[in-house]
Write a structure and sequence with these properties.
The chain is an alpha/beta fold. The protein has one domain: 3-Layer(bba) Sandwich (D-tyrosyl-trna(Tyr) Deacylase, Chain: A), CATH 3.50.80. The protein is 22% helix and 40% strand. It is built from three helices and eight strands. The strands form two sheets. Strands 1, 2, 3, 6, 7 and 8 form a six-stranded mixed sheet that branches. Strands 4-5 form a two-stranded antiparallel ribbon. Helix 1 crosses helix 2.
């Protein structure tokens, strides 16, 4: 499982011209699922995500978490995080989890984050989405279960 976490001033996701998720200050999180991912793996990444201290404190040091700043979450599924570009110029996505597994874990991530963060918005699994954001920093962190678990 991979989370690409972007600290944002604001972000939104639109499907077919309709805004389906919108946040102010917080994290835009792109979620990729591979075939070997499990609830246990998701739990470890969720724990890191909701406790990640990348907001500045009064001294300007990245010392505050999403909860500390009343931040919001926008979670968007993105199977292309598992693109394999080793051969040729056309990416292969065989490492991405099948749609059933990916959707189940994506919905799980959303539900678990809602237990920790007051405002959690999300995109539409499997839809073509337009994602708009103002990256704050810019500050982007990648959590990869192969490196954490």
């Amino acid at each position: 499982m991979k989370f690409v976490i972007q600290r944002v001033a604001h972000a939104s996701v639109t499907v077919d011209g309709e805004c389906v998720g919108k946040i102010g200050k917080g994290f835009l999180v792109l979620v990729g699922v591979c075939e070997s991912d499990t609830i246990m793996i998701a739990d470890k990444l969720i724990g890191k995500l909701v406790n990640l201290r990348i907001f500045p404190d009064a001294d300007g040091k990245t010392n505050l978490s999403l909860k500390d700043v009343d931040g919001e979450l926008l979670i968007v599924s993105q199977f292309t995080l598992y693109a394999d570009c080793k051969k040729g110029n056309r990416p292969s996505f065989v490492k991405a989890g099948d749609a059933e597994l990916a959707n189940r874990l994506y919905e799980y991530v959303i539900a678990e984050c809602e237990k920790h963060i007051e405002k959690v918005e999300h995109g539409s699994f499997g839809a073509h989405m337009d994602v708009e954001l103002m990256n704050d920093g810019p500050f982007t962190i990648i959590l990869d279960s192969r490196e954490i678990c």
